[in-house]
Write a structure and sequence with these properties.
Rossmann fold, alpha/beta, 5-stranded parallel beta sheet, two-stranded antiparallel ribbon
Length: 461
């Protein structure tokens, strides 16, 4: 039987852990840093200001402690935002109290704190999921509306026991044709209030169609009377299965069908900075990889070292995508995709493809700005022309710059696409990436790509 009640102090425990991190790093800084640095300012005042500076973080980002469905990259993103607020508060208080702390001390402290806080939050996230799987810290929920929208929500809530939702049933005046769903319907809408009171329901999710507005208002009023948190699941979820963003025009609420983090200038700046840093470092050492590969390609077969191909880039604009030539010169290179055992591929080319070294010249594309390190892989113009007519949302993948690697590639959709379904899945992953971008997701993809190259990818040929 699930147990409830022991999770009330969890938020307090996590916040206490945050402050332990603050003071542990402070103590380590005092021990590790040179004595002349330690004595350069009043550490007692610094210690006090650090602890005070974190209080706004607890207030602004306190909801992170209550979130049940989260992902590592999003958690890291919130940790970074928390650090920014923490640093700004500390700098402001330091100026107010005329406390001069050296740059090296601040850099050491805040970098160490960021690392420790990430470890702490990731550890807590794992522990909470395990804790909830054991039946603690759960929320009792019901769904009003057992039709398609409600069923989609039910599957999501039940997809992971670590989320900590105890589903107690559907309510609807309409019978379901699905026997499995019928078994989960515990009553009609008139019975919701009594059931919620008797079973101490925490959250009510209303998934009724908008045409039943009187019933929706009734559920809202009932929830407020009984201090039950009320959520509306918009009917649009039946045909728009992606992240929606909420906005307002005056007093009119709006739902945007696509959230694009890279529309924000700061996000674009951060992504471009990462692109320039990585591509710049690779180009800096280009004599070490370009010259031997160029020589091997030149000796493998007649033709140029680099293969330039027009591909579809940002907002549908064409650009010259660079690769080391891996095939014999042929007339089908711009229309025919490489397949396993392709006779056009040279022995040197096969090795370059297997190790992904053939893609290295694209770091020049990244540095120039035609591409990004991470993004949807650019397709040849013929593929863009063909697939844009066959696959819904195919052109959406061009809302951002194409990448050297992408979310689709690390999820197994790399190389040859033999079927339309494979390309559809690739597009699905590309669009998901556009809607969920954050810098930690990029770092995750880069690490997974590097690991995949080291391990070997069966789709690389």
């Amino acid at each position: 039987m699930l147990k409830k009640g022991k999770g009330r102090f969890i938020k307090g425990i996590i916040i206490a852990g945050d402050f332990i991190c603050i003071n542990l790093v402070f103590f380590l800084s005092y021990i590790i840093l040179p004595q002349d640095v330690v004595s350069s300012f009043d550490w007692r005042i610094g210690w006090l200001l650090l602890n005070i500076s974190y209080l706004p973080v607890c207030y602004i980002y306190g909801e992170v402690y209550n979130e049940r469905i989260t992902y590592i990259d999003l958690l890291l993103s919130k940790t970074l935002k928390s650090l920014v607020v923490f640093v700004l508060m500390f700098l402001s208080l330091s100026m107010f109290f005329n406390l001069e702390v050296g740059t090296k001390v601040q850099l050491f402290y805040f970098v160490a704190f960021f690392i420790l806080l990430n470890c702490w939050w990731l550890f807590v996230n794992k522990i909470l999921r395990y804790y909830r799987k054991k039946g603690y810290n759960f929320k009792r929920v019901v769904i009003v509306g057992a039709r398609q929208t409600g069923q989609m929500l039910y599957k999501e809530l039940q997809s992971n026991a670590g989320y900590g939702y105890k589903f107690l049933g559907f309510f609807d005046n309409v019978k379901s044709d699905d026997p499995k769903i019928s078994e989960l319907i515990v009553g009609d809408i008139s019975q919701v209030e009594d059931f919620c009171i008797n079973n101490q329901i925490d959250e009510l999710y209303c998934a009724l169609p908008s045409a039943e507005d009187s019933a929706i208002v009734e559920m809202l009023q009932m929830s407020e009377r009984n201090t039950i948190r009320f959520f509306i699941v918009p009917e649009v979820r039946r045909f728009v299965t992606r992240t929606l963003s909420f906005g307002m025009i005056g007093a009119i609420p709006l739902l945007s069908v696509r959230e694009e983090p890279l529309q924000r200038w700061l996000a674009r700046f951060v992504k471009r900075a990462l692109d320039l840093f990585i591509s710049g470092m690779v180009i800096l050492f280009s004599p070490l990889w370009y010259l031997p590969i160029a020589l091997a390609v030149k000796l493998s077969s007649p033709g140029p070292v680099l293969f330039k191909q027009k591909r579809t880039g940002f907002m549908g604009r064409d650009f010259d995508c660079l690769k080391f030539r891996t095939m014999k010169v042929n007339k089908d290179s711009d229309t025919k995709q490489a397949v396993r055992g392709d006779a056009r591929i040279t022995k040197v080319g096969a090795f370059l493809r297997k190790t992904s070294l053939d893609e290295f010249p694209q770091f020049f594309n990244v540095f120039k700005g035609d591409m990004s390190i991470v993004g949807p892989r650019p397709h040849m113009l013929k593929h863009t022309e063909d697939y844009s007519k066959l696959i819904d949302k195919y052109m959406v993948r061009h809302f951002i710059k194409p990448g050297l690697t992408g979310w689709a590639q690390v999820n197994g959709y790399r190389g040859e696409t033999k079927t339309l379904q494979q390309m559809e899945k690739r597009v699905e992953y590309d669009v998901w990436y556009i809607e969920h971008w954050n810098i930690f997701l990029d770092i995750k993809i880069i690490i997974l790509t590097a690991f995949g190259v080291f391990k070997g990818d069966e789709n690389a040929f």
